[in-house]
Amino acid sequence: MPQIAQLAETWSSQIFWMLVFFGFIFFVIGRGMVPKVMATVEARDQQIAKDLAAAEAARAAANAEEEAWRVESNRQRAEAQAVVAKAKAEAAKASETRLAKANAKIEAKLAEAEAKIAEARSGALKEIEKVAAEAAGDIVTRVAGLSVDAKAANAAVKEALNG
């Protein structure tokens, strides 16, 4: 076969050109392009690492800020609760004072009303005694035909009412 016979004659030339071609590819790609690509990959990795570090620092700062905000919020909430408790206590005290004043007024009016009732009762009892004494005197006069003196009729009525 002529093709196989031709190989033996051209093998050294093919190896030479193969070495030239692969050498050219090695130097152009291996020595020229690969370092640039690797440098780009390294720069990208460094940028990613920087971005991750910055993100972690930002997250840590945000967490610290959030914690500070929580502490401040809790402090303000506690202050607000203290103010509310103080206001409630003051309102209760003021309400208690007004209630005490109102109770004192009511007690005074009640005492005054009781005094008026006692006075009215006393007046009514005297009036009842007077009417009863007159009625008793009239009844004795009509029934027995005797004349009873007003003092005796009053004494008999008082004795009957008290006894």
Overview of this protein structure:
The protein has 163 residues and is mostly helical. Helix content is 96%, strand content 0%. The protein has 2 helices and no strands. The protein has helices spanning 2-144, 150-162. The longest helix has 143 residues, at 2-144. The N and C termini lie far apart (168 Å).
Largest sheet: none
Distance between the ends: 168 Å
What is the count of β-strands?
Answer: 0
Helix and strand content put the structural class at mainly alpha
Low-pLDDT segments? none
What would the principal axes of the Cα set say about the shape?
rod-shaped
Question: What's this, in brief?
Answer:
With 163 residues, the protein is mostly helical. It has helices at residues 2-144, 150-162.
Task: Describe this protein with a few key phrases.
163 residues
Write the layout of secondary structure elements.
Layout lengths: L1 H143 L5 H13 L1
Helix pairs in contact: 1-2
